[in-house]
């Protein structure tokens, strides 16, 4: 796998002089802010001179600050860090089936390697202790909110999927201590979700975000379950990140079920009080 610019900065940090190390620390902490920042502003925030910024950029092979920012921005673009087969209009149905399944399996395998179990545990603890949980999402992530609502209700939890900007804002503004806002966002950069999290916390609620770890939403949440946005932008790409968000929901459900003493924590039918008629 190609080493990203951020990984190189982290790897070389200990070899830097104190001034450059301050730049490395700031870039590593807030890369999405640095790409929109002037060199003068970065120099001011890091308490270094402009020549120090230039030396820092040249250390990694860039001619100047703008070139450095461009490459930093490219390193933040979501990509699939796993074996990936592009689907094209020329593919047969057989190829579409095979590639979709294989790409999804690879994304799930990568999730297993990247996901921090402690983050899942912290999220589950907050959700289990909640008196009421509002589940927020927008766009395609709304399907994750509905899935979570159904599964948490089967555990007997008081929760509701809140869809639509007006409805979300109304509930977020009325949040209170004891409530939890569970927010699904692939990128973590959606302004609406960041505002919902900020409003819910202002009312005393706790916020659990399932989103990219280094994102604005993550920074305003009490607990983050970091899921890298693995999707590629090629034509007809399956949305593997949404699948991984579904898996995180299942992990939370199982963790809560075990903590609640369920006899069959990984079998949702055993938790389901709503029996359906079968033919």
UniProtKB/TrEMBL annotation:
Residues 3-79 form the HTH rpiR-type domain. Gene3D superfamilies: Glucose-6-phosphate isomerase like protein, domain 1 (3.40.50.10490), Winged helix-like DNA-binding domain superfamily/Winged helix DNA-binding domain (1.10.10.10). Pfam families: HTH_6 (PF01418), SIS (PF01380). GO terms for biological process: carbohydrate derivative metabolic process. CDD domains: SIS_RpiR. One of its GO terms (molecular function) is DNA binding. Residues 123-262 form the SIS domain. Keywords: DNA-binding, Plasmid, Transcription, Transcription regulation. This is RpiR family transcriptional regulator.
């Amino acid at each position: 796998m190609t080493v990203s610019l951020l990984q190189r900065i982290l790897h070389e940090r200990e070899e830097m002089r104190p001034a450059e190390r301050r730049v490395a620390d700031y870039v590593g902490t807030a890369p999405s802010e640095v790409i929109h920042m002037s060199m003068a502003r970065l120099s001011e925030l890091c308490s270094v001179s402009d020549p120090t910024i230039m030396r820092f950029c040249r250390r990694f092979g860039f001619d100047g600050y703008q070139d450095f920012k461009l490459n930093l921005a490219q390193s933040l673009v979501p990509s699939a860090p796993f074996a990936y087969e592009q689907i094209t209009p020329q593919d047969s149905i057989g190829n579409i089936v095979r590639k979709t399944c294989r790409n999804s399996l690879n994304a799930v395998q990568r999730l297993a390697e990247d996901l921090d179990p402690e983050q899942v545990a912290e999220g589950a603890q907050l959700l289990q202790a909640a008196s009421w949980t509002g589940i927020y999402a927008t766009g395609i992530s709304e399907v994750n909110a509905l899935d979570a609502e159904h599964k948490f209700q089967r555990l007997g939890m008081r929760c509701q999927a809140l869809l639509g900007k007006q409805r979300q804002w109304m509930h977020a503004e009325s949040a209170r201590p004891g409530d939890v806002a569970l927010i699904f966002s692939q990128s973590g950069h959606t302004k609406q979700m960041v505002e919902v999290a900020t409003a819910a916390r202002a009312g005393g609620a706790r916020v659990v975000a399932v989103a990219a770890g280094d994102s604005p939403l993550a920074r305003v949440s009490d607990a983050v379950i970091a899921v890298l946005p693995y999707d590629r932008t090629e034509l007809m790409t399956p949305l593997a990140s949404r699948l991984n968000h579904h898996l995180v929901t299942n992990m939370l459900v199982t963790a809560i079920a075990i903590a609640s003493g369920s006899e069959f924590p990984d079998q949702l039918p055993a938790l389901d009080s709503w029996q359906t008629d079968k033919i």
